[in-house]
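INFO  loader      accepted 1 record
INFO  loader      residues=372
INFO  predictor   begin
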Amino acid sequence: MFRLSNLISSVVEGKKERILDGSIAIWNFTNRCNLSCMHCYSKSTLDEIDTLTTKQIKKTILEMKKNGIKFIIFSGGEPLTRKDLFEIADFCKENGIITYLSSNGLYFTKTNVQKIVDTFNYIGISIDGDEPTHDYFRGLKGAYKETLKAVKLANSTGAKVGIRFTITKETINSLEYIFDLAERENIPKIYISHLVYSGRGLDNLEMDLTKEQRRTSVEFILKKAFEYYETARDIEIVTGNMEMDAILFLNEFSKKYPDLKDIMRKRLVTWGGNSAGRRLLNINSEGDVRPDPFFPLTIGNILKEDFTNIWQDGNLLNQLRVHPRKQITGLCSDCEQIDICNGGSRARAYAISGDIWAEDPSCYLSLEERRR
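INFO  predictor   done
INFO  writer      dumping tokens
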């Protein structure tokens, strides 16, 4: 995740660097879902049966704690379809692990919303555009109205709530709408995810943005981030799955604050770009462990071996943990900014070339921007 807003405020105001103390796990606790989204990397359906038991999950959480996992994002499918989800989240909290919920919001009600916001440190709810766009993209007519109700319900409690938006050719015309919605409803966070080629996202590859569209979109997002900071608008902007955004951001930041360029660059290098297998991992509903949710290869399964053995052993993880990843070929091989982006998505590289060490085909940077 690339936290634009936090980086702007912390560097300009001379605040301490925000360092991730530990690793993040995105855990798909279920593959059951009441929607059929065009980009879903896990191809979730309502017919799925949960594989992992509460006991197995708790055992793994204790092992994850020993290995420095400090954050767990509860994902799916739709995580709220699991009856033991609150029990699992409470167990995480008892063991000092911060919990985030990623949901479509359709199971939020007036009677359970307080329990949801009291249980999780942060609530991310997916809205992929205006009503017709969202309903088409999510595969259910009427989904938008129910999801927006959930956002308003959660936000009314005063809890930290954010809109999650995936940008594709189907949703790009709603990018400005999402910002207008956050401003109108005083939603404190917008998370914008770029498409990664996995699951239905791979099946529907043609819906990904062109490089020109991506660049225009990122420029708009950066403009809003600086606007919010300069006008003291309390809306945080984060982008995901497109680490090259940081280099375009650095260029824009340098124009506004030239004396702080070197400080910002050091912050970005410390952030480190793509963190798959380094400070990020995924466990899916079958217990498979991957370096990130989209990664084409598994590194183990918690039903067959302890998490510690999976996370501490293996040639692939050792290669992924090299920073910067200078073993990446193509455009990345002579890029002078790779210490910032770390080569971008390995899943996208593999989907297009069959090689996890190929360049990320979505990189939109010019030759000049790849030079310092």
